[in-house]
Amino acid sequence: MPVDSLERYSRQMRFPALGKAGQEALCKSTVAVCGCGALGTVLANHLARAGVGKLRIIDRDFIETHNLQRQILFDEDDVASNLPKAEAAARKLRAINSTITIEPVVTDIDHTNILALVSDADLILDGTDNFETRYLINDAAVKLGKPWIYGGVIGSEGQTMTILPGETPCLRCLIETAPPPGMTPTCETAGVLGPAVSVIASFEAIEAIKILSGARAALNPCLIMVDVWDWTFRQLKIANLLGKVDCPCCKGRKFEWLEGGQGSHTTTLCGRNAVQVAVRRDEPLDFPELASRLASFAEVRHNAFMLRFAAEGHEFTVFPDGRAIIKGTNDVTRARTLYSQFIGS
User: Fold this and answer.
1) Is 117 helix (H, G, I), strand (E, B) or coil?
2) How far is Cα 66 from Cα 326, in angstroms, rounded to an integer?
3) CB 155 within 8 A of CB 196
4) Which of 9, 45, 117, 212 is deepest in the core (most CB within 10 A)?
């Protein structure tokens, strides 16, 4: 790589543990960022500025005003423009660093597509807000032998753990089953503080830089737990779990989430009074045709990325792949009925 192209990273390369060789490794790396909300925007921002060669930004959602409190790549213009998070993030990141490749993918991560989404990545990063997707990432990472970094934040608390399949415990070694719906706090019930997000995402990002630059000896082997309000910091030693717990994933090689035996295509969304209905289609939806069909009873707006309308007290956001986010209900059955009524089966 020409020396001139590395000049923008000169202050970073002066850090002895990274140096020119580490920077060149970063520039050749590919990272899949799963989720581009609070954690994902901070992660993508750090890694784009650090010079990671390719970032694939994967997210299923669109931007709302309440996201702006903590999702640092978005602004009010993005809300007004009806942009999906992945696309809006990609536009910002390209303005930050035009020398790297940014690939936005507007889709829901599930067992049918995750292997294709992460197969060429050197590292998978968790920017999600639910355990269903995290267990899916864990299955894929263990099966492919790819490192991934778990992170989660709620209220003022957050935690993160670096997972190297075959070398460290995986997520299911630590938490074998997902908490039942409604049994854990959400951003709606407990709130979430932007600085807590930034702390955890920054821990994830520095671990990512270590992995990608070849500095694995410097990785933290613990589950890190931080509360920025109470100012507590704990590290839970977990290395002894590897091979000593009856983990169905990394020990039993049972990939229940990846095989579709766990999880659902229709899910309530964290703190949103909304349900996502995912319907896989062979061809993208024809937005102009759908808009014409709905126009007699609803005001419809659409662009290349999404179509939006309101009907029967619910707000619909529809994506080209057939997915829809239906606001105004947490009832999955009701959401499926509304989907069939207005969008079709």
Assistant:
1) helix
2) 17
3) yes
4) 212
Are residues 167 and 283 both part of a single domain?
Answer: no
Summarize pLDDT for 212-222 with one digit per residue, the tens.
999 999 999 99
Q: Which element (helix H / strand E) includes 116?
A: helix 114-118
233-245 tens-digit pLDDT = 999 999 999 988 9
Instruction: State the residue range of the domain holding 156.
Output: 3-241
Q: What is the CATH number of the domain that holds 151?
A: 3.40.50.720
Measure the CA–CA gap between 105 and 114, rounded to whole angstroms: 12
> Nearest-5° angle of CA 247, CA 248, CA 249?
90
Residues 40, 57: contact at Cβ < 8 Å? yes
Both structure tokens of 218 = 């410097």
Q: Return the pLDDT at 273.
A: 84
Identify the burial level of 136 via C-beta atoms within 10 angstroms of its C-beta, where 0-12 means exposed, 13-18 middle and 19 or more buried: buried
pTM: 0.88
The total number of residues written for the chain in this structure: 345
DSSP 8-state class, residue 180? P
